[in-house]
Structures are given as C-alpha cells and as structure tokens.
Specification:
The protein has three helices and 47 strands. Helices cover 9% and strands 44% of the residues. It is mostly beta strands. It is globular and about 65 Å long. 55% of the residues are buried. The strands form eight sheets. Strands 23, 24, 25, 27, 29, 31, 33, 35, 37, 41, 43 and 47 form a twelve-stranded mixed β-sheet that branches. A nine-stranded parallel β-sheet has the order 1-2-4-6-9-12-14-16-17, covered by helices on one side.
C-alpha cells in the first residue's frame, strides 16, 4: 500500500507540475514592461520585483517608464506601493480569486503628506487584507480603483494632507471609507459599511448605503441608481491557464457591485482575438493593419509614437491599454479616431499631445455622425489626456464626441500647469471636451486648465455625474482671457444656446489665477430652460488673486479669498 501511495503522490506531483508548466507555456508574451506573479513564487522574490518598480516610479511624474504588475489568482503576502504609470491587476474573474495580505497603497508624492500630484496609477481586481486594517489611497486625478474588495477600512488621504479628487467603482469595502481631507470624489456602484468625511464635492451614484446628509451641508450628492453603464473590460485567466478579456454587460438602473455571484456578467473574448502590441516595435501602420483585419488591441505599457491616427473602424472592437499605455501623435494628426459603430470600447489609455498642434487627440465618431447606439453604445473607460508637462504638447481639442449614446466612465483631461513645456504660448489647448452627440452620459469628468471652454456641450440629452475643473492658472492678462465683449474668461462648463435638454449633478469649479486683475465671469454658462438642469454646484478661489464672479449664469455671488468664501448653488434654474 505504501508503494501505491508513493506512486499516487508522485503521479499527482507530476500532474501539478505538468499543469503548472502548461500554464507557463501558455502565458502570452506581454513584453518587458509587464511583470507576472504566480502564487507559488517566493514572497521575497515578488517583493524585490515590486520594490524595484517603485524605486523607478515613486517620483517619476513625467518619466517615460510604464509598468503593469499582474497577479495570477491565488494568495500573496506582499506590500505593493504604487508609483506613477503603474497599474496593479488581479487576474481572477472575481477580486476574491486574487488575495493580497499585506497592503496595496498609493502615497502622497509631495512633502507634508501632499497628494495633489499623485496621478496616473491604478489598482483593480484584487482582494486586499491590509496590515493594520487600513488601506491608504492618497491620490488626486487619473487614479482608478476598480473591482476591489478591501477587507478593512479605506482612507483617501495621507494623514489629512491635501488631496484633490479621485474615482472608485465596482468596489466592496468591508469597513469604513474615510475621505478626510479629499477635496472632491466620485464613487459609482460601490458598497461599504460606512463613509466618513466631506470637503467640497462628494458624489455617490448607484452606491449601496451612501452616507447620511445632503448638499450643501454636508456637500453630498446622491443619485440612487446608475441609469446606464458598462464596467471597464479586464484581463483574466481561467483555471486552465487561458488568458481572455472579460467585457462586462451593459447595466441599466443599477446599484452596487457586479461580482456578487463570483463573475461579472458579460462576454469573454479569447486573448487570441487580440493583437498584443509593444511600444518601440509597433507603429501606427502595424496597429492600423491589425484593426483593419478586425483584431482587438491589447496595448502593453509604453509610449506609442504615432505618425498617423489609429483608426478603430469595426463595431465591437476593444482597445485595452495596460500600465497607462500612452499614445502620442508626432505629426499634428489625431492620435485615434473611431467609426460611428456599435460597441466600440476604449479603456486604459493616456493620450499625450505631440509638439505639432493636433486638431483633436481622440475623435469618437466622425463629424456628422447620425447612428443610434442605445442598445450597444460606444464606451470609454479610464481615458486620460495630457497637454504638456512631459514635453511641449499642442492640440485644439482633446476629446471630441460625435457619436450618439456614448458612455464615458472616468476621464481626466489635463493641460499641464507644471512640468516641462508649460506656458500660455507653449502647451496650447483650447478645449478639453466637445460633445456633439445626443444622449451622451459621462461619469467622473475631470477637465482642467484649458485656455477656452473646458467643456462645450452641443448635443441634446447629455448627462454628467460629477465634474471637477480648475480653470487655467496662467492667462497673462484679462485682455487675453475674454470670450466675448463684457464677458471675462471662458466658462468652465458651457452648454450651447441651442441645447434643449441637459442635466448635471455635483460640479466644482476652482480658480488659481497667477496674475492680478484676471477674473472669470461665470463658472457654468447654460441656456435658461426648465429641461436644462444643474444640481449641487460650488466655486472656490484657491489663490490670492482674482475671483469667479458667478457660479452659473448670473446666479451665485463672487468667490472671495480674504477671508475665503466659497459659493454654492443647489438647483438651477
């Protein structure tokens, strides 16, 4: 019997070794900027690799390195600090399949616990049991926290230092979420035991158990149900070691997370239907050839220098970036355009303006698009834009949406206010986003520092859930910052005069003028119609110069700085 047991044990060991080898053999070649961890690896080996990435990315605000850390399903005992341009991903169908005991955290990038430049980092698909019972996510913009299970508390600041906004969705927090000194925040389709803290503008959409209270004190905006949304696609691995991309189903009138039953409802696309792109090897020509063949794209971390736009021409194409894959046009073209086609999904991309002025960085649908996509909309998830900062960048418009029914699920559209190539005549950008399509819905709209209207909304039936905008710091004088005779500056959020229906919830607009004598007449400009409605708005003057004279049209008194007086309007009209 002992011999038979020995043979059985040996056979079992062989099978385990065989399947482990098969899983390794089936692993796609994601290139050098993707680190793949397995639960059987020594914890010290994993920790050394993580620490090496963080040593590069901790202060690498405008660097060229891009990294994704992928964890196969299983258990790990590690500490994962997340630096710039780093994405940490669990590869299970459910977050609970990839478990980290230790921590995953984002820390303040500046002195004095200041997290106002803690940008461009992400975590998704993980279950975290944080050491000490608390996970720290001290962040500002372009910092998605998606499909996470936090077995403890979550704090959105570092020791109450400054922090300036962020995003979480499809997350379960067993304990309390403490926003603390966070200035503004959006939570969509999340669940938690409790929430504490408030500052300027906190928005909760489709959240189970939102905090008690209502705008203006505390500044909570609650929308009980998310009207329409598709969660971001994600990379996953089956028990047989097969890689695929899960595309979540469209949800209507929803609240709470998608993965209570273990897997997010949706469809699975085998990774064999994706072209795995590598920066430095692939060009706009090679990528467009794959798109023309009907292939999906998985863009591994890196900077893709593009001599022509990437053209997404087929319905239901998925373009998924890992590790803040960056698209930079080199010749004054767009970086990407899409057809006016059903179900195109763009996710996890950073668009970085090139030195020659582009007319637009991302165009969703050509001008004059007429198709309707209610049942299978085009959707954008964690799509970020940058003009200047790393180098001189120029564009007229960052994001132009022409297709009807488009969904935008978290975007930061930033004209840099610091870094390299920054100045009124250097990193030029007129508008952050121009919406021409009808029935466009945006969750988490962060748009900052562009030189004219931050947002122009020309389409009907538009909806925005959470808006955060600093207007430009650097107009040299009032004469160069005037949109019309008698109107100082360009409103941050502009609804065109011809629009007959529009609605927005939770809007914050802030000024940090650097020159004396520069003011903004109004933060929001809109036609006065009963079917054009705004809820819960705030303006704040953050510097010792200038003011915002009105919150929306002629409603709301001027902001003040000595003493500082913020202005709020609850309903308009």
């Amino acid at each position: 019997m002992s011999g038979k047991r020995g043979l059985l044990a040996a056979g079992l060991s062989f099978l385990l070794l065989f399947f482990s080898f098969a899983a390794r053999a089936a692993t796609p070649d994601f290139g050098p900027n993707v680190l793949l961890f397995r639960p059987g690896m020594p914890a010290a080996e994993i920790q050394k690799a993580i620490d090496g990435v963080y040593a590069t990315q901790q202060h690498n605000e405008f660097g060229t390195q891009r990294t994704a850390l992928l964890f196969l399903p299983g258990s790990y005992h590690v500490d994962v600090p997340i630096g710039y341009y780093t994405e940490v991903i669990g590869l299970g169908a459910s977050p609970d399949e990839t478990r980290i005991a230790g921590n995953v955290h984002a820390d303040a990038s500046l002195k004095n616990n200041n997290a106002t430049t803690t940008f461009w980092r992400a975590a998704e698909g993980l279950s975290i049991t944080p050491a000490g019972g608390r996970m720290q996510w001290a962040v500002s913009q372009a910092v998605p926290l998606r499909r996470m299970h936090i077995a403890g508390d979550l704090v959105l600041h570092q020791e109450h230092g400054w922090a300036s906004g962020g995003w979480m969705s499809d997350d379960l927090v067993d304990g309390n979420v403490d926003s603390g000194s966070q200035q503004q925040w959006i939570s969509r389709n999340c669940e938690w035991r409790s929430w504490s803290g408030s500052n300027w503008n906190m928005v909760f959409v489709g959240v189970d158990h939102p905090p008690a209270g209502k705008w203006p004190v505390p500044p909570y905006t609650e929308v009980a149900r998310t009207p329409i949304v598709r969660e971001k696609p994600f990379l996953q691995v089956s028990k047989a070691g097969e890689f695929s991309v899960r595309v979540p189903a469209l949800r209507h009138d929803s609240a709470g997370i998608t993965w209570h039953d273990g897997q997010t409802p949706g469809r699975t696309i085998p990774l064999s239907e994706f072209y795995i792109a590598r920066a430095g090897r692939d060009t706009a020509v090679t990528l467009n050839a794959q798109l023309a063949r009907g292939r999906n794209l998985l863009l591994t971390p890196g900077i893709y220098e593009l001599s022509e736009p990437l053209r997404v021409i087929h319905a239901n194409t998925v373009v998924l970036g890992l590790g803040f894959a960056t698209l930079r046009p080199t010749g004054g073209d767009a970086a990407m355009t899409t057809a006016d086609a059903d179900g195109i999904i763009l996710a996890g991309l950073l668009f970085d303006a090139g030195p020659s002025q582009s007319p637009v960085l991302l165009q969703v649908g050509p001008e004059g698009s007429r198709g309707r996509h209610e049942d299978n909309p085009i959707s954008l998830h964690d799509i970020f834009f940058r003009v200047g900062g790393a180098t001189v960048g120029r564009t007229r418009v960052n994001l132009e949406i022409n297709s009807h029914d488009t969904l935008v699920d978290h975007t930061w559209i930033w004209r840099a206010d610091h870094g390299s190539g920054v100045g009124w005549n250097l990193n030029t950008s007129a508008n952050g986003v121009v919406v021409n399509g009808d029935q466009v819905t945006i969750y988490g709209l962060f748009v900052e520092h562009h030189q004219q209207f931050q947002v122009i909304w020309n389409g009907n039936g538009g909806r925005t859930y959470f808006y955060q905008s600093e207007i430009p710091y650097d107009p040299p004088n009032q004469g160069s910052y005037r949109s019309a005779p008698g109107t100082n500056g360009w409103a941050s959020y502009k609804v065109a005069d011809a629009v007959t229906s529009h609605e927005a919830w939770g809007l914050g607009v802030y000024s940090v003028f650097q020159q004396s004598g520069v003011v903004l007449s109004r933060a929001i400009e809109t036609p006065r119609r009963a079917s054009v409605r705004f809820h819960d708005m705030i303006t704040v003057c953050l510097a010792d110069k200038g003011e915002i004279s009105h919150v929306i049209n002629d409603a709301g008194e001027p902001t003040q700085i000595h003493p500082r007086v913020d202005r709020k309007v609850t309903e308009y009209p």
